[in-house]
Hints:
Helix content: 40-55%
Number of helices: 4
Order of helices and strands: HHEEEEHEH
Shape: elongated
Oligomer: single chain
Strand content: 15-25%
Largest sheet: 3 strands, antiparallel
Low-confidence stretches: 74-88
Strand order of the largest sheet: 2-1-5
Mean pLDDT: 77
Amino acid sequence: MILQTYLKLLTDWTDNMNRRQKFILQIGVCFILLVGLFPPWNKVMNLKGNSCGYEFEKPYSFNFLLWPPDFTFDSIGIVMLDLQKTGGASGFRIDKTRLCLEWFLVILLTSSLYISFQDKKES
């Protein structure tokens, strides 16, 4: 019942769009998915080894969500963390601040283009 109501509202909303607006919306959704699949990562370094010491993060790179940076495949295809590259007392974390900022910018650009391509209403 709720799903039917949602689909009806979505259909009514998309019926009022022109071709360019539908295209812009599809491109915006694709960019949101791409940004989510390839998020920005931070390298996390612990200065006091494994104890609960001072920890800081440094922006790193963009990698696939399921394969964080500096992961390598061994000869039989198992994902292994390369400890020589990471120094042993570090790891990687998704940079949620940059990720949200990227999503915000994509939504802002998509909505701006969506509004700018509205059909002119005759008065």
